[in-house]
Specification:
Blueprint: E1 4-5, E2 8-16, E3 20-27, E4 35-41, H1 47-61, E5 71-76, E6 82-87, E7 91-93, H2 94-100, H3 105-124, E8 127-128, E9 137-140, E10 145-147, E11 154-155, H4 165-168, H5 182-186, H6 192-208, H7 220-229, H8 238-241, H9 249-254, H10 260-266, H11 269-278, H12 290-301, H13 311-323, H14 325-328, H15 331-349, H16 358-385, H17 389-392, H18 399-412, H19 418-435, H20 438-456, H21 461-474, H22 479-496, H23 502-517, H24 521-538, H25 543-559, H26 563-576, H27 585-601, H28 604-622, H29 627-642, H30 646-663, H31 667-683, H32 687-702, H33 711-724, H34 728-747, H35 751-766, H36 770-788, H37 793-804
């Protein structure tokens, strides 16, 4: 006491833990009066522990929120011990504060939402707190909660990994056992979902006065097993079964300005479901974000339906399908998609269009929603029952067969419920889209659109969803129609939900994809960034939707040649979604996209291995004949070609071509594949086959948009073939068509533009114009090597062209 640290004098201890102590201090330099809290690492502890305080200091410096204690200063004492100076919070732990003032359940929920806002702010800065216990949340006399102690927080930003190695080692578990998530206790990767769980523990304790699990007298191993495996006691039952609370049930109720009976009623139903959703063992089944958790509490306080209650039927259906995994195959994925998406769409599809007689309208609407939801429930339960051995009579139905059965029955059942039929058609059509069964998706989606727009003539969110799905469908062949339906979706969503809504954001993402496929990369990037900004502002958007937008932004950046930024997005997404099953479709898509980025960077061995793994997953999920498999086999063949494994590349291309012909895929996909096969023929020295394939591909592309993204690569390949066949004039003709296409996409500094420049230089050199050729070949070679390295066969070819050049004789001007 009395020691001077920087400009501050220590007054007394405020508290201590295993690694450090916090002191109350005051300004000692007479500049102004100020009281602060100073946190010091205990003397003699390891440098690793000291580094954690420095990390905490960096974390606090990046956070600015009214409910997070502010960082004021920092430094080291004379003996080198690091310290941080924070805002002094004169308050009490949130549980003590709430009990002393006898806050009601609703008042505690409002207080808790302020804590959620602080945690969400940390998550937006890619920081997980990991220690959200009552003693780390102090509430001031004015009722303002302040979040403290980021000492064991974790940075998720990959750029900070070098600073946080000590925090992520599996053998170091820094936690408070009874306020820790299952993944913290088991040593699994920590994400923002961990804070969601611990906030659930905190809310449980605030509302019931008890912890969700009995903790007294338990060893760490017993506690770990309980938290990781045992379901928590429903909040409303803690008073009837006994608990480890320090107070009696009557005292707990009194501290909440209530009675035991009333408190039990309050903790039943929606509120209990909200808490239990946050406390789910599986991170992916909790709220997708702390903001979504807080928003659900807000809906409860307003008397609105909550998202937590929508899980019950879906989860039962998922469990049912798992019991019949052999006969259903992919039924788990389909059940979750069908039930969750359909019921959610139906319940949100109809909007009140007048404020008159609101109470009566709400009652009618609720009855209709219940009736519709029950009809959907009965329909789907009966559909999945067809896989039961007693009804299937020994026949094993695949997931696709069950889906086909459902598609047929939608048209003949649910009589008189046209809107419901349209919703189900859209839902099943959407699943067909995800399975790559486009020919089955199209008639369902088009009929759903016709029922909504022409027969019922109503604008709802369900109609916007149909338009979005039709836009996605037409991305594979008709970009004009795709753009038309994306704009329909945006317009409907804007009129029904407002300009800053989830539907508008999703439509912008779709438009971004259209622009990217047209090589309008500036427009694509702008739409995708707008979409991501809107998702961030909304806060309660499903994580998978944000992931889709990020994925397409990364693809756009990769198309520009910015592979480093694209790779960072993919790796961050994969780290945050590490708990997904290997055959999850979003995981497969992201891993495939990462492989293309690695190939673009020249990390060919890593890309080849990833392509192989992705192809195996696609065969499991989509089968042996799918568009997804064609794309991956083509890309896998291209990386094998770059690795000079020509035989394996040839087998991969031929399998892709065989599937392509069976599925009758769009001409641009076939043209791209023919271009890759031509490139392989060229590398193997078969210039005749290469020229034929390139010309066939160019003929296919001539029927399509002149700006097709494959046209430039086919023109480049054909030109390279022609210079190797000593046809420089024809080569010059085609490469001069390709160069303008490369100028904007991916740009003049890209390796693709460099390759095209070098080919033009070679063509000029073969025509005797070596003075013009030399700067083109030299500049093109250096651009290529800067991005792709000098070891690839193509780089060696360009180098040989450079070596073939002879110095150009310079004849001095003779004055007469």
């Amino acid at each position: 006491m009395g020691e001077i640290i920087g400009p501050y004098r220590v007054l007394r201890s405020l508290g201590h833990g295993g690694m450090g102590e916090v002191f109350l201090a005051e300004r000692a330099d007479q500049q102004f009066q100020q009281r602060v809290a100073i946190k010091l690492v205990k003397r003699g502890l390891s440098k690793q522990v000291q580094s954690r305080l420095r990390i905490e200091r960096q974390i606090l410096a990046s956070l600015e929120h009214p409910n997070i204690a502010r960082l004021l200063d920092g430094g080291s004492t004379k003996d080198g011990t690091p310290y941080i100076v924070m805002e002094y919070v004169d308050g009490k732990p949130i549980d003590e504060y709430s009990d002393e003032r006898r806050l009601t359940i609703n008042q505690r929920l409002e207080l808790f939402r302020s804590v959620c806002a602080a945690v969400h702010s940390a998550h937006q800065n890619l920081i997980v707190h990991r220690d959200l216990k009552p003693s780390n949340i102090l509430v001031t006399a004015a009722g303002v909660p302040k979040l403290l102690d980021f000492g064991i927080a974790k940075m998720l930003d990959t750029r900070q990994l070098s600073q946080t190695v000590a925090l992520t080692e599996a053998d170091v578990r820094m936690l408070t056992p009874d306020h820790a998530s299952p993944e913290q206790l088991s040593g699994d990767l920590i994400t923002t979902a961990s804070d969601t769980y611990v906030l659930g523990v905190l809310l449980y304790e605030l509302l019931t006065g008890c912890k969700p699990f009995a903790v007294k007298g338990r060893s760490f191993a017993e506690l770990e097993r309980t938290i990781c495996e045992d379901p928590p006691m429903p909040p409303s039952q803690v008073f009837s079964r006994g608990s480890d609370a320090k107070q009696s049930s009557e005292e707990i109720a009194a501290n909440r300005s209530s009675t035991v009976a009333k408190l039990k009623r309050e903790l039943q139903g929606d509120l209990g479901s909200i808490i239990l959703m946050a406390l789910r063992k599986e991170p992916e089944r909790r709220y997708s974000s702390v903001r979504q958790f807080s928003d659900d509490i807000g809906r409860y306080l307003q008397g609105l339906p909550v998202n937590a209650r929508l899980d019950t039927w879906t989860y039962r259906a998922t469990k049912f399908v798992k019991r019949h995994a052999v006969v259903v195959g992919l039924g788990t994925l389909l059940a979750a998609t069908l039930v969750g998406f359909t019921i959610n769409t139906y319940l949100t599809s109809r909007e009140l269009r007048t404020e008159r007689d609101v109470a009566a309208a709400q009652s009618i609407r609720a009855d209709k929603e219940r009736s519709g939801a029950q009809a959907i429930s009965n329909f789907l339960i009966d559909l999945f029952n067809k896989s039961d051995p007693d009804q299937a009579r020994g026949k094993e139905l695949t997931a696709l067969e069950i889906l086909d059965l459902g598609a047929q029955r939608i048209r003949t059942e649910l009589p008189g419920q046209r809107e419901l039929q349209a919703v189900l058609m859209n839902t099943v059509g959407n699943v067909y889209l995800r399975l790559g069964k486009y020919e089955r998706a199209q008639p369902l989606l088009e009929e759903s659109w016709r029922i909504f727009s022409q027969e019922l003539k109503i604008e709802t969110l369900a109609l916007a969803e149909v338009a979005l799905n039709l836009g996605e469908l037409h991305l594979r062949g008709d970009l004009s129609k795709a753009e038309e339906f994306m704009n329909h979706s945006i317009g409907i969503s804007r009129r029904v939900e407002g300009p800053n809504s989830r539907g508008v954001a999703r439509g912008k993402c779709g438009l971004g994809i259209v622009h990217r496929e047209r090589n309008q990369l500036d427009l694509a990037e702008r739409q995708l960034r707008d979409c991501i900004t809107m998702y961030d502002a909304l806060g309660n958007v499903d994580a998978s939707e944000s992931a889709i937008a990020l994925d397409h932004l990364a693809r756009t950046l990769a198309r520009r040649g910015n592979f480093t930024a694209a790779e960072e997005i993919y790796r961050r997404w994969l780290a945050l979604n590490h708990n997904l099953e290997p055959d999850n479709t979003r995981l497969i898509e992201h891993r495939h996209s990462l492989a293309t980025v690695l190939q673009g960077k020249g990390a060919l061995q890593d890309a080849e291995q990833l392509y192989r793994e992705v192809a195996a997953s696609i065969r499991t999920v989509w089968g042996e004949e799918s568009e997804q498999l064609v794309v991956v086999l083509t890309n896998h063949g291209s990386v094998l070609q770059e690795l000079s494994e020509f035989e394996r590349a040839d087998r991969s291309f031929k399998e892709a071509l065989s599937i392509n012909e069976k599925l009758k895929l769009p001409d641009d996909a076939r043209a791209y594949l023919m271009g890759r096969m031509a490139s392989l023929a060229l590398d193997r020295g078969d210039t005749i086959t290469a020229e034929r394939l390139y010309r066939d591909a160019l003929e296919l592309l001539a029927k399509l948009d002149a700006n097709s993204r494959f046209r430039s690569s086919v023109l480049t390949g054909l030109s390279k073939t022609l210079v190797q066949r000593d046809q420089p004039k024809d080569a010059q003709h085609y490469i001069e068509q390709a160069l303008p296409l490369f100028e904007n996409v991916p740009g003049k500094n890209s390796y693709l533009y460099g390759l095209a420049e070098a080919i033009l230089g070679r063509a000029l050199s073969q025509q005797g114009m070596r003075g013009q050729a030399e700067p083109l070949i030299r500049g093109g070679y250096h651009k290529y090597v800067a991005q792709r390295g000098s070891r690839l066969p193509e780089a060696r070819l360009l180098r040989s062209w450079l070596d073939d050049l002879e110095p150009v004789a310079v004849h001095p001007t003779v004055s007469r």
